[in-house]
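Duplicate of #3305? Posting structure anyway:
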């Protein structure tokens, strides 16, 4: 219920103004977000890759209002990728792209053309793109976009959210040679008709999906901070005879950083999702919704304690 309220607030203009003008400064937000500029993102990327971690960079912003904004977002990604390529970080850092940030739902042809442009820039920088998965009503369109992109860019990653009732079916379809699939629980509010709403059911679905992906021929990217699921992933890797380079763990910047380093130190691939930019509000609210303790942290910061 509380989670639903926070997710509803993530889409509310009024709540946005309150959070953005609260006197807690940028400190609380900075726990989850690398900063507002490309330089901030590069600083964090260098620090993380120096610790043996991989990175996926996300330019904050979603559900843009018009074609001009959508094109500007794609341009920003292209510039970011040119810089990644120039710095040689392309082998350690890829990008995550939200279809709604490049015009999906406003002009789908433009969104696809922009995604192709970003994929081309990623290839030139020796790296890859993963399409984030957003609200449940965008799943079919995003899977179709990934399918289309994979004709020319077979390394484009796609996301399956285990809270979706069809998650296991999506995984079975996507577990083919070369297919990069990120599995996560799902961060949005979705109705019971299409999604499990009970946390234990979402976790059980995650395990079923992991089994399919780890036994399959693709490259699973297991995006969770959940200790039990990470342990099961390790057991499945042994059971399915997977070497460390054939799959990866993924976590968000600012969440369980010690665990990220522990897994990397034992030889596993760990990729950290690093979000940056000025449009941090919706992303930040989803992070609050994931863990009630974060709200307490936030309120204490606002109160100046
Ligand atoms: P769960 O929420 O049960 O958390 C398990 C434990 O992790 C908690 O007990 C706590 O210790 C820690 N934890 C989790 N979230 C925390 C937080 N916000 N603050 C502090 N501690 C926290 N979703 C989506 O719908 N589409 C997408 O494309 C993506 N992409 C994506 C990429 C990557 C790399 C990650 C890690 C996650 C996503 N997600 C996502 C978000 C995902 O769906 C999910 O909401 C979060 O990962 C939280 O779920 P957990 O699996 O960590 O479990």
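Output from current build:
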């Amino acid at each position: 219920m509380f989670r639903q309220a926070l997710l509803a607030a993530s889409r509310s203009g009024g709540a946005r103004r309150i959070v953005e003008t609260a006197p807690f400064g940028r400190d609380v937000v900075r726990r989850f977000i690398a900063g507002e500029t490309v330089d901030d993102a590069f600083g964090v990327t260098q620090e993380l890759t120096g610790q043996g971690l991989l990175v996926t960079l996300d330019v904050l912003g979603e559900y843009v209002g018009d074609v001009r904004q959508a094109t500007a977002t794609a341009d920003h990604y292209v510039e970011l990728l040119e810089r990644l390529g120039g710095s040689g970080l392309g082998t350690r850092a890829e990008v995550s792209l939200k279809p709604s940030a490049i015009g999906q739902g406003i002009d789908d042809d433009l969104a696809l053309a922009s995604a192709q442009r970003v994929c081309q820039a990623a290839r030139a920088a020796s790296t890859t793109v993963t399409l984030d998965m957003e609200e449940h009503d965008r799943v079919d369109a995003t899977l179709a976009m990934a399918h289309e992109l994979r004709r020319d860019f077979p390394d484009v990653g796609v996301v399956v959210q285990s809270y979706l009732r069809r998650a296991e079916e999506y995984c079975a379809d996507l577990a083919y040679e070369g297919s990069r699939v990120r599995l996560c629980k799902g961060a949005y509010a979705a109705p019971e008709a299409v999604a499990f709403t009970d946390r234990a059911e979402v976790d059980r679905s995650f395990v079923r999906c992991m089994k399919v992906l780890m036994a399959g021929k693709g490259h699973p990217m297991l995006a969770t901070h959940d200790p039990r699921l990470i342990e099961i992933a390790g057991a499945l890797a042994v059971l399915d005879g997977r070497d460390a380079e054939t799959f990866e763990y993924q976590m968000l910047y600012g969440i369980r950083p010690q665990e990220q380093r522990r897994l990397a130190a034992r030889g596993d691939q760990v990729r950290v999702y690093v979000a940056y930019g000025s449009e941090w509000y919706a992303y930040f609210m989803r992070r609050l919704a994931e863990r009630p303790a974060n709200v307490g942290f936030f309120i204490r910061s606002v109160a100046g304690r």
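Confirmed duplicate; merging threads. The longest strand covers residues 270-276. The chain has a mean pLDDT of 91.
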